[in-house]
Amino acid sequence: MTHDQWWLASIGRTVIWARLRVLDAGVAEVLDSDGNTLVYDSEDTARGMLLDAEFVEWDGLDPEDALERGFAIDEIAPPQADDDAQLRERMVQSLGKRV
Question: Does residue 16 contact residue 8 with C-beta atoms inside 8 Å?
């Protein structure tokens, strides 16, 4: 069984997603916004790499943190698709101008 975690980074009103997937063997895979799957020896290593790249975990994001990043938490949700190929197209979200 795998366990998925969604992470995000933001540049202005653009949100960039990454999916961290922990496999049974303890190996971790990160699907990045370019559609690449990066493999790490452990969840801790993968989390460290995401944090170094200024990503934050979606599940830990509160409304104040979201506003500091330039968006309201209810404006976004992790992308969904039937497979990774379709998901790749949804890994970068442009939120448009703030009203």
Answer: yes
pLDDT per residue as tens digits for the range 36-94: 999 999 999 999 999 999 999 999 899 999 998 888 899 899 999 999 889 999 999 99
Residue 12 near residue 70 (C-beta atoms within 8 A):
yes
pLDDT at 21: 95
> Beta-strand (E) ranges in the chain?
3-11, 14-22, 28-31, 37-40, 56-57, 92-94
Domain contains 64: yes
- C-alpha–C-alpha distance, residues 99 and 91, integer Å: 24
Q: How many domains does the chain have?
A: 1
The amino acid occupying position 85 is A
| Domain interval for residue 20 | 3-70
Q: Which two tokens stand for residue 8?
A: 């995000």
